[in-house]
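Write out this protein's structure.
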Amino acid sequence: MKTQALILCAALAVGGTASMEAAHIGVSLNIGVPAPIVVHHAPPRPVVETVVVSPGPGYVWVAGHYTWLNGAWAWVPGAWVVPPQPGAVWVAGRWEGHHRQWVEGHWEVMAPVVVAQPGPPPPPATEVYVEAAPPPPQTEVIVASPGPDFIWVSGYWGWNAGRHVWIAGSWQRPPAGFHHWDAPRWEHRGRGYIFVRGRWH
C-alpha cells in the first residue's frame, strides 16, 4: 500500500494534463508479460512530460504511457517508483498493429548477464619470440575507477596473427589475495624480442 500511495502522489504531481480518472490508475506492480488485449486502434501520441527529481536511491522513472481501460485509452502520468523486486525492469507497453493487439506495460525480471572483465587474454601455451620490435606504447585516457578495490592495468602490445596488436588498458579487480600487477613487456634477446607475460602478486 505504501508503494501504491507513492505512485499515486507522483502521478498527481506530474500529470497535470491528465484526467483525474487516469491519475488514479497508477503503475502496475505485476511481474511478467500480460496477455495481449484485442484493441482495434493504436494509442494516441504520448504526452510530453518533465522528469522531476528522483525522491531517493532505489527509484526508477517509469515514463508516462497509455493503458487500455474500460474500452478506451487512458493516460498514466510518469512517476518515480520502487520496482516490485530487485532486478525488475519496466517494459513499456507495445501496440502490434498487424494483429490489432496491445500488450500492457509491465515489470520483468531479467536473467543475470555475466560480463567477462576486459584485460589480458589467457597466456599462450608457448613463449612468443619475434624479430619485429613492438611499436611505442599508445597514449591512453584513464577513465574513473569503478570502485576502490580496482587497479588500473595499462595497455600493452601483444602478438596475434603474425603482428603486434594493442591491448587496451582497463580497470581490473585483483584476484583474491593479490594486490599488485606486473605489466607485460617485451625483452630484447638476441636478434629478436620475447614477450614476458604480466602477472598478479
